[in-house]
Amino acid sequence: MVEVPPPTPRIVFRRLRPGDADLLDTLDRDEGVMQFLDWEPPSRAGQRAIVTERLRQDERWPGHGCFAAESPAGEFLGWFALTARDRPQVPDLGYRLHRRFWGQGLATEGSRALIDYAFGSIGADAVEADTMAVNQASRRVMTNCGLSYVRTFEVDFDDPLPGTEHGDVLYRITRPEWLARAH
Ligand SMILES: CC(C)(COP(=O)(O)OP(=O)(O)OC[C@H]1O[C@@H](n2cnc3c(N)ncnc32)[C@H](O)[C@@H]1OP(=O)(O)O)[C@@H](O)C(=O)NCCC(=O)NCCS
């Protein structure tokens, strides 16, 4: 089985490494990046524990995972993920990029590569993604990659971010839809 999605013209994917905690930390400490993510950045030790857990999940679900995204020159752009959750045949697509790389089509380019990989290499039946309804850039990435809006659902947080009242949105692309687009 292929271990990582193949590279795109501007993105090289690789598996996370234990030493990546600091890289992830710089991303998570940027308030702009975290605007629509209801999650307090963990301590350095916490970040290392997250990487360890992700590596453990990689062993459990070998085709899925969180992939560091680098430019062909080796600069860290951010990450893309296919998370198995409780249904490995319907992985959840996620992405987080440094702000200086936004607005250049990179999230769309990387997400398309992960979707092709999910259907072509790990046998997914569908790929899903969700985000806050007010996260327009993320929603646009989803539709640009061929995912369709499924539903809006309520989320309950102790300390909700602005916009939480509009709920979260779920998007999906099925294998037949992917085949119809790809061939
Ligand atoms: C979401 C994110 C990955 C997008 O990255 P990106 O590389 O800028 O995305 P792309 O350039 O591929 O596409 C962005 C699309 O959103 C559009 N867009 C950006 N900001 C927008 C806004 N405020 N309103 C409407 N559309 C917007 C862009 O025009 C583009 O659409 P287009 O190609 O049809 O013109 C990036 O903003 C990010 O890392 N955000 C923080 C993490 C996050 O929110 N992740 C998703 C949580 S589920």
Topology:
Elements: E1 12-15, H1 21-28, H2 44-60, E2 65-70, E3 76-83, E4 92-97, H3 106-120, E5 126-132, H4 136-144, E6 148-153, E7 168-174, H5 175-182
Antiparallel strand pairs: 1-2, 2-3, 3-4, 5-7, 6-7
Helix pairs in contact: 1-2
Task: Please explain how this structure is put together.
The protein is of the alpha+beta class and 183 residues long. It has one domain (12-182): Aminopeptidase (3-Layer(aba) Sandwich). The protein is built from 5 helices and 7 strands. The protein has helices at residues 21-28, 44-60, 106-120, 136-144, 175-182, and strands at residues 12-15, 65-70, 76-83, 92-97, 126-132, 148-153, 168-174. It has a 4-stranded antiparallel β-sheet, sandwiched between helices. Strand 3 and strand 4 form a beta hairpin. Helix 1 packs across helix 2. Coenzyme A is lined by residues 33, 36-37, 94-97, 102-108, 131, 135-138, 140-141, 144.
Q: Tell me the strand order in the biggest sheet.
A: 1-2-3-4
Structure summary, number of beta strands = 7
CATH fold label: Aminopeptidase
Ligand inventory: coenzyme A
* Distance linking N and C termini: 22 Å
Instruction: Return the CATH class.
Output: Alpha Beta
Q: Based on the structure given, which CATH architecture is correct?
A: 3-Layer(aba) Sandwich
Mean pLDDT: 93
H-E string: EHHEEEHEHEEH
Rg over C-alpha atoms, rounded to the nearest angstrom: 16 Å
Q: Can you tell me the residue ranges where pLDDT is under 50 for at least 5 consecutive residues?
A: none
Number of helices in the DSSP assignment: 5
How large a portion of the residues is in β-strands, by DSSP E?
15-25%
Structural class: alpha+beta
Q: How does the overall form come out from the CA principal axes? A: globular
Biggest sheet, in brief? 4 strands, antiparallel
Multimeric state of these chains?
single chain
Helix coverage percent of residues?
A: 25-40%
